[in-house]
Amino acid sequence: MKITYRALDLNNDVQLNKVKQLIDADLSEPYSIYVYRYFLNQWPELALLAFDIESEDKETPIGCIISKSECHAAARERGYIGMLAVDHKYRRMGIAKNLAKLAIVKMKTGGCDEIMLETEVDNFAALNLYESLGFIRVKRMYKYYLNHGDAYRLILPLTEKAVQKSYILNEELR
Amino acid sequence: MYGQVKYQRIEHPRYNLDEKLYLLGLTDDPSWPKDDELYDITHIFKALSSQMDAKDIVKTKECGFYEFTHALEVNNKKLDTSSIPLKQEEIHFDCNKPHGETEEERINFVTAIASRLLRSITTWLNDHQTFPATVLSCRYIEHFLIQLYSLPGTIDILKTGDEYYDTFLNTCTASVCYFLSFVSNIQETSILYEDEDLSFDPMALDSFHLLRNQAVIAKKLEDSIKILSSPQYLNKNVKDLINLMHIFSSLIHIEDLVSKYSEDSEYLDKIITVSDDLNVSYDWSRMPPNGSFSMIAQKTLSNNSPVHSIVEPVNSFNGWIDLAKDLKLAISVSQSKSPIEFLQFVNFFTRTQERHPLSRAVFLLFYSRKNGNIIGKYGKNEFVDKIWREFSTTATAIDLQNELVFQNLSLVIDHCYTAVTEWIRNLTNNHARARRCIGSRIEMWSDIETQTHTVEQYLHKQPLPDNIDSAKKASHLWPLTLWSRAMKNSTIIDYSLRGFELELYQPFECMEMTWFVSHIASESDETLREVEKILNSKFNQISELTGQLLKTKQNVKKLNSYKPQLARNIKYLKYLRAHNNVLRKLSIFQTYQFGILKSYGIIDNNELKELPFVSCELLHNLRFKKLIGTKFMKKLTYAAFQKFLNQYVINGPEFQEKLQKVVEEMKLALADARIDVKEIIHSINKGDEDTSMLTGTRLVKDEALSFYEELENSIELLGNNLDTITVSLPETVSGDLKQKFFVKLRYDKGSCPYFPILTLLEKQ
Ligand SMILES: CC(C)(COP(=O)(O)OP(=O)(O)OC[C@H]1O[C@@H](n2cnc3c(N)ncnc32)[C@H](O)[C@@H]1OP(=O)(O)O)[C@@H](O)C(=O)NCCC(=O)NCCS
């Protein structure tokens, strides 16, 4: 098996459908097509897919990460990882970690000061994964998901701006 | 995983005509729209969409971000409520028909509906389920609310021709709808958070607001109970129904707690006794008629939430007991006899247990009255003044009777009032929200400290007489600065320790957090000692002076009134210091514990330093972000932290001897903490009578006891863990022990979650 990673092709319906399938299969949160479109159409370069190019289905993604990057509180550029999933057959091989690293590099080079995400408090796989990349839990949010599950918000600070209070940064900008 | 906005409140009913007709019972097919009423636009749609690029976004002005991301997707089973499958019995369920062939069947049906409806309410409120998946799944509630729009002013909605439905079930339904308007009003106060505390989407069916006549419903319930208790029903199986009706009857009075600030808890007691009774005697073999609980409302009403399957309530009335007990506790605050009791109430009300959201909201609306009065006893100035006096200002120059002092403090009083009421509100939130809010207020306390210090500096320059000996000038004490500093310190400690409770910190972060808490607790101890000094000096001053001042009777009276207050304060301070000492000693213990594991190379506070994207300094600063802007944090840089933490690491020659010393130190810390905890527990148990401490926990005795008993358990567990660790580790630091061991934070039941156990585990 040989895994390669590349950005999503927005015009490729097969890719989009497989991405939906991967995510719908395991994430508890039900996303409508509009949610996918919200991320993918605005930040296609931050949607990365993994392919097994030695498999029969080498054009079908076996893992994906969907992210965005926006200015937060007029103070810092915040990268955000919205969704991440890897096909069951390919788990525990470091694919998710590679996808996350690639996305982080992209967001970092794109000027992000921090990267944020949320995950269910009992999703130990995801928590281990993100924490092994240096994310820390900054808050717990009760009943954050539609299934009433609690979430942790995790942040990876990349620059000084990530650790300054927004209002202080805004005052400095003024 | 991206979380979405759960739903948006629709302010006005927006039914289409067919829906409305169905809702009014004028058509019997809810599966709107019907095929022959539709015009097929597929070909137009396809033609237009074929010209579009995948990147194109079709968006209208009315469609903002939330609608855009949350728009429901047709045919998506998780999102499209119009695709909810319904059984025939649900579609054709008729609320205006008496279900059940015989009287006995009808009694059973009505009892089962009423029972399930009641338990659905607690499933909704206690277990945080959605409204449509619980209460609104009851067809009688839906029917009642719909009919209310067209029949405002009446509550006789059910017209089946059968007494069990038209009188008894109808009244129960009215009671629930009345209660809904109360819950809705609570929700509108924004005390509770929609997503976190209470999920109330009535799907535009808000006619419960039209039900304003509590007395009418109360009377009907009373009459119903009377009828059912009459000899005519003696041989009928209505005992359960009567019990249930008692709960419905109490339900409508919960509102009185905030509308009339009623302190009457009789009906809450009734809920408890009746629920207890029902738990024992209720006949669970009864089932409601098929179709009487359904997802049909989600399908047919104005709904932009995803599909929520019905949550079957459990076969128990314990939910009602929990709700009633929490409400009773919330209003017991009115019995507080002093600000200390009031503040301790706030401190322990939700400390070890998440309280029922309604009880938290009721507490806030109950203690702070519309006229600005606190529990019907104190006005703003009096409240703040009493808090100060119970802490540090008694017999000092901070005497609000003095015009000059009052004028200079009036702004400070306002700010302190805001800070204290904010603190009360913050602590009353659910635990996750509470920590966030407490954190946001640290800077405010820091500002208040500066502000009080400035005013006190100014007052010192004024010719203020000493409050005890008016012949002298007031001495330079800082009672207000010390009060605000003590509040700031305890807020920081609380904020930091609650991070453990919420499991926010990873094992590698523990050392920084526990060292930080111990550091602030040391500062806090100094502050409390300062206050103690003021109080003792005032006490002594009075004792020495009373003889000389007997000449003026008024003075003697004043001085004598100071003495008991000062004695109280000293006793209270003793408690505060003991409490603070327990937290300090346990934090020191934890820091040492981490230090030992770090000395063996098993864990490191900077262990992420090798990771590609990580700066340990940035992680540290992110963790302490809420504290940025406070004066003391300017000194506590990342580098300073590292220096302090390294003092806890054992290295160099004579490792074992040094280790033994550290272990001794740790055991001493635990022993110290144990003494203080025991003393606090003793005082709580004795109601502060004949004790050395004043805990002020009379109203929250169980809650306070459970907190300190958890701490007591933690002390034992931490001690045991230390023993386990010391025997598991080799005598000398050799080899890469990180390959063999790892550290996990363990949260044992019955122990204090602020001090999880740093457990050493062998890698598989
Ligand atoms: C979470 C998920 C994306 C991980 O994918 P993966 O490719 O198997 O992960 P990796 O192989 O890259 O694992 C990297 C690290 O994550 C952690 N991890 C991954 N799966 C884990 C599991 N089942 N249990 C515990 N830790 C796990 C481990 O620390 C792992 O490192 P290690 O293998 O060296 O111990 C995958 O399990 C998944 O798709 N889950 C369902 C969707 C989901 O939960 N997404 C995250 C929502 S925010």
UniProtKB/TrEMBL annotation, chain A:
<dbReference type="GO" id="GO:0004596">
    <property type="term" value="F:protein-N-terminal amino-acid acetyltransferase activity"/>
</dbReference>
<feature type="domain" description="N-acetyltransferase">
    <location>
        <begin position="3"/>
        <end position="159"/>
    </location>
</feature>
<dbReference type="GO" id="GO:0032880">
    <property type="term" value="P:regulation of protein localization"/>
</dbReference>
<keyword id="KW-0808">Transferase</keyword>
<keyword id="KW-0012">Acyltransferase</keyword>
<dbReference type="InterPro" id="IPR000182">
    <property type="entry name" value="GNAT_dom"/>
</dbReference>
<dbReference type="Pfam" id="PF00583">
    <property type="entry name" value="Acetyltransf_1"/>
</dbReference>
<dbReference type="InterPro" id="IPR016181">
    <property type="entry name" value="Acyl_CoA_acyltransferase"/>
</dbReference>
<dbReference type="GO" id="GO:0000822">
    <property type="term" value="F:inositol hexakisphosphate binding"/>
</dbReference>
<comment type="similarity">
    <text>Belongs to the acetyltransferase family. MAK3 subfamily.</text>
</comment>
<dbReference type="InterPro" id="IPR044542">
    <property type="entry name" value="NAA30-like"/>
</dbReference>
<dbReference type="GO" id="GO:0031417">
    <property type="term" value="C:NatC complex"/>
</dbReference>
<protein>
    <recommendedName>
        <fullName>N-acetyltransferase domain-containing protein</fullName>
    </recommendedName>
</protein>
From TrEMBL, chain B:
<dbReference type="InterPro" id="IPR057982">
    <property type="entry name" value="TPR_NAA35"/>
</dbReference>
<feature type="domain" description="NAA35-like TPR repeats">
    <location>
        <begin position="330"/>
        <end position="642"/>
    </location>
</feature>
<keyword id="KW-0963">Cytoplasm</keyword>
<dbReference type="InterPro" id="IPR057983">
    <property type="entry name" value="NAA35-like_N"/>
</dbReference>
<dbReference type="InterPro" id="IPR007244">
    <property type="entry name" value="Naa35_N"/>
</dbReference>
<feature type="domain" description="NAA35-like N-terminal">
    <location>
        <begin position="55"/>
        <end position="217"/>
    </location>
</feature>
<dbReference type="Pfam" id="PF25789">
    <property type="entry name" value="TPR_NAA35"/>
</dbReference>
<dbReference type="GO" id="GO:0031417">
    <property type="term" value="C:NatC complex"/>
</dbReference>
<dbReference type="Pfam" id="PF04112">
    <property type="entry name" value="Mak10"/>
</dbReference>
<comment type="similarity">
    <text>Belongs to the MAK10 family.</text>
</comment>
<protein>
    <submittedName>
        <fullName>Uncharacterized protein</fullName>
    </submittedName>
</protein>
